[in-house]
Design a protein that fits this description.
This protein is mainly alpha-helical. It has one domain. The chain has helices at 16-36, 55-85, 90-111, 123-135, 150-162, 167-198, 203-214, 217-228, 234-259, 264-274, 278-289, 302-317, 320-335, 351-355, 359-374, 379-411, 415-418, 423-447, 449-453, and strands spanning 7-9, 12-14. Helix 2 (55-85) runs antiparallel to helix 3 (90-111), helix 3 crosses helix 4 and helix 7 runs antiparallel to helix 8.
Amino acid sequence: MTDGVGGKVGGFRLKEDWWAILIGLGIVAVAAVLFLNGSSLRWLAVLPPRWKEFAQVTGDLAENWPRYLAQFAFWLAAFSGALRGLGYRFRDIAPAFSLLYLAAYAIFVVGQWDKAVTYNLEAPLIALFAGLLIANTVGLPRRFDAGFRGELYVKTGIVLLGATVPLSLIALAGPVAILQASIVSIVTFLVIFFAAVKLGLDRRFAATLGVGGAVCGVSAAIAVAGAVGAKKEDTPITISAVVLWAIAMIFILPLAAKALLLPTGIAGAWIGTSEFADAAGIAAAQAYGGYAGKVAGIAGTSEQALQAFTLMKVVGRDVWIGIWAVVLAVIATTRWNEDGEAKGSAPDAREIWRRFPKFVLGFLFASVLVSALTAQYSLADYNKIAVAKLIGPVKDLRTWTFIFCFFSIGLTTRLREMAKTGRRPLAAFSIGVAVNVVLGFVLSVYVFGSHWATLGQ
């Protein structure tokens, strides 16, 4: 998904990934300093309580309203600073984000109901449904989209997620994730590319569609369209196909995994290989993680689902964006120029760095920092001290960013506009989706199943 409009700080142009890193690592750094001084971010990291009677919710609000107000002010300051740096106006950001925070609170309350799992009222799915309903019925002013920047929120959340994923786990699972992601990325690209060419689409368009399904949908489509010299209309058509299937998979994958009673680690890995956008995948993984300990027969923890997804999608698949951009730029300029003119951009190895998803670095740095701070703890002390005072508050703040993201996705998805995708591009992409889901399932369950089922144990 797009990096956003750049904003300059001290002469250096910051894009969306860098703002996510600044906000995410800033939170982790403050949490670390407080932890080292015997305190924590717990006061700011407030969440609605689990409840059976609604009086528990009103009681919590009466007691903790100063904490919620302070948290709102913090998020508004952090994200409005980033969004203004990206070129948006505060007068558009402030009302939009105020609505976003109030909606996120209401969504949390519903998700914390003790019967929520029984009725499939997981917070990510509620957020997405509510946003879609509003956007496609009553609608909101387009200028409010300035505050509904789902990619900024999810990237910030992924950086915060790094603080909850130990470096040792990344070192252990990383090679498997990269291998599995590489298999999926290459096979999915080839299937979509050749299906699209067979259906009569231009090879540059086919390449854009292929990478959109093989890696991180929107960002990949934009990067590769420029690298191969695709037509202007090819990118929005690809993005529409990606978003349609990404939203569908938010519901399909968790329900299918639940029916099969997959362990949370395996389900997270399958979602990581079969989703087409980071934000949508996080929603699906978090929804499935919510079944842990609540649905009989589903083994594992909620964190395993998120960790497996992140290792597969963010560490494994997203890094392919730059690789595909360079490889396809070479092919486009040397093989796809029948008219004697180079259509793609000049091959440049530096493109790998330019297209590399920088927020992954924030994720890794957060993991390194927290791992270093907690290296001396035994497992018992880690759970008793580090989780309670350092990791727990960061995790709760991370949860807010994810809900901001899911609701924003719904609010900015206009289904009527995506209906213009076209039959042939959607057909080619859908063939890739089918192969992607089946291949991801086989790899996650049968080939590497024992690895994902015991992730972190």
